[in-house]
Design brief:
By secondary structure, the chain is an alpha/beta fold. The protein has a single domain, classed as Rossmann fold (3-Layer(aba) Sandwich). It has six helices and five strands. A five-stranded parallel beta sheet has the order 2-1-3-4-5, with helices on both faces. The longest helix is centred in the C-terminal third of the chain and has 26 residues.
């Protein structure tokens, strides 16, 4: 890893138990070579630390914050309330089939937006963060175009494999 990198994205999770989901975001950011940091912060257990992090993110050069939380899921909204940096919320399926965290992250008051991805959708949160950053970074935009082409090529190959699956009544 190159020395002296400064993070552009912060991955924040309410608990280290969320790491099993959030590795998807880290994997995507790493693949796209976007420097990132990871922290566990809790809106309820460490509110002072959340405030210090959120208020200082912009001055540290953070471009996007990905905040994951389950259950009451206040972390993304609390961070969004205290920073001008875009926040992407990742609802974690921890209780009530995840609906509590989905609704807590989606239903933000006017003036405090949190972009929200699917339940446990950390990979999409990283892709969205990359797309936000890439609006001002042509090199990253090229990486994203290649990334999306790779997704397309995987589907083309999958359909070739499906063509080889035989059933008496399958027509293709």
């Amino acid at each position: 890893m190159p020395q002296g990198l400064k993070p552009k994205v912060s991955i924040i999770m309410g608990s280290t138990s969320d790491l099993v989901v959030m590795t998807g975001a880290a994997d995507v950011l790493n693949q796209l070579e976007i420097p990132f940091e990871m922290h566990a912060l809790s809106a309820h257990r460490t509110p002072a630390e959340v405030e210090i992090f959120a208020k200082g993110a912009h001055s540290r050069g953070i471009k996007v914050i990905i905040a994951a939380a389950g259950m009451a899921a206040h972390l993304p909204g609390v961070i969004a309330a205290m920073t001008p940096v875009p926040v992407i919320g990742v609802p974690i399926k921890a209780s009530l089939e995840g609906w509590d965290s989905i609704l807590a992250i989606l239903q933000m008051p006017p003036g405090i937006p949190v972009a929200t991805v699917a339940l446990n959708g950390s990979r999409n949160s990283a892709i969205l963060a990359a797309q936000m950053i890439a609006t001002g970074d042509e090199k990253l935009m090229e990486k994203l175009i290649e990334f999306k082409n790779e997704l397309k090529n995987k589907m083309i190959e999958a359909n070739k494999e499906l063509a080889g699956v035989k059933y008496p009544f399958k027509t293709n």
